[in-house]
Amino acid sequence: TQPLIEVKDLKKYFPITGGVFQRTVGHVKAVDGVSFSLNKGEALGLVGESGCGKSTTGRTVLRLLEKSGGSVHFKGTDLHSLNKKDLRAMRPKIQLVFQDPYSSLNPRIKVGEAIGEALVDHGIVSRSEVRDRVKEILSICGLAPYHIDRYPHEFSGGQRQRIGIARSLILKPEFMVLDEPVSALDVSIQAQIINLLTDLQEQNDLTYLFISHDLSVVEHLCNRVGVMYLGSMVEMASRDELFSNPLHPYTKALLSAVPVPDPTKKPERIVLQGDIPSPANPPSGCKFHTRCPFAKDICKQQIPEYKDAGSNHYVACHFAGEF
Ligand code: SF4
Ligand code: MG
C-alpha cells in the first residue's frame, strides 16, 4: 500500500551571506538528505538535540519552507510541486502544532474565533455553523464549551496547548507535525496532553510526526523513532527496537541520559564530549566523529552509509552495534 507520507532525500539549505555585497558565501545544511515514510495511523518520533534540524525537517515536509532538494509526497501528491491554489486546498489535511501556541494566538481575539477562523477562511463551514463546531472541538480537546468567548491570557499553558491542538484538529487533518508540543509544560500536564494526542490519534486515525528533544516523551506516543544529528538521520527503528537495541553511539548516549524507574536496567552511561559543531561547517566523514567515544580514523574520512541493519532498523555508523 501507498504510504501516507513519503520523504525522499529531503534537503533544506539556508544561505550564509557575507561581505559588502552580501553575497552567498556558504550554506547551513539544516536538513541534509533525510528520508522516511509513514503509513496511515503511524506516529514517528523525531529526536535529537536542539539545532539538529528536526523543526526544519517538519516545516519543509509541510512545505511551510521551500525545499532545497529531494521530495515529499502526501498520498502520492508531490507537495513541493503544487501551485499556490492547490497547496492552499491541501493545507487543512496537513497541519502543524507549535511548541508555544500562545505566541501564535492574537491576545485581542477570543479563542473561539481563533479556532474557527481557518474553517471560515477555507470555506469549510458557514459563519453561522462555526460556533457549534468550535464548541464541539473544544470539548473533544478537553475544554468546556463556555471557554469559547475567553481570551488567550485567561488560559494555563496546558489549556493553551489544547487550544492549539483544537485549532488544527477542527480542519480534520490527516497528517500532523507536532513540534515540541509539550516541551514548555510541567511533567504532569505533559502526560495529559500526550494522553489527549493518543486518544485523538486513535479516534481519527491520525498520522503524526512528533518532534521532541525528549526521548521519554516520544516513548509514550510513537511507534517508530528516528534520531537526527546535524541535519542527518543517524538511526531509525520501531520504538521497541530502538529503546532495547540502539546501534548508533549517539542514540546510546541519548538513551543513557534518560531517567529509568529501575536503575539496574539502566544502560551504561555514555557521556558526549564537546558541543554540537556548527551546521555551517560540519565535520568530515561521520559528522558525529568529533564527539563519538568510539571514533576511529575511517570515521573522519568516510561518510557512513545509512542502511538497514535488519528488520527495518536503519543506522549510519561504520561500526554499528559493535560496542
Ligand atoms: Fe562513531 Fe565512527 Fe560510528 Fe560515526 S561512524 S558514530 S564516529 S563509530
Ligand atoms: Mg526546534
Automatic annotation (TrEMBL):
UniProt cross-references to NCBIfam families, sorted A to Z: oligo_HPY (TIGR01727), PRK11308.1 (NF008453)
Entry similarity comment: Belongs to the ABC transporter superfamily.
Domain ABC transporter: 5-255
Swiss-Prot/TrEMBL keywords: ATP-binding, Nucleotide-binding, Transport
Organism of derivation: Paenibacillus aquistagni
InterPro entries associated with the record: AAA+_ATPase, ABC_transp_ATP-bind, ABC_transporter-like_ATP-bd, ABC_transporter-like_CS, Oligopep_ABC_C, P-loop_NTPase
Lineage: Bacteria, Bacillati, Bacillota, Bacilli, Bacillales
Protein name: Peptide/nickel transport system ATP-binding protein
Gene Ontology terms, MF aspect: ATP binding; ATP hydrolysis activity
Matches recorded under PROSITE patterns: ABC_TRANSPORTER_1, ABC_TRANSPORTER_2
One Pfam entry name: oligo_HPY
Gene Ontology biological process terms in this record: peptide transport; transmembrane transport
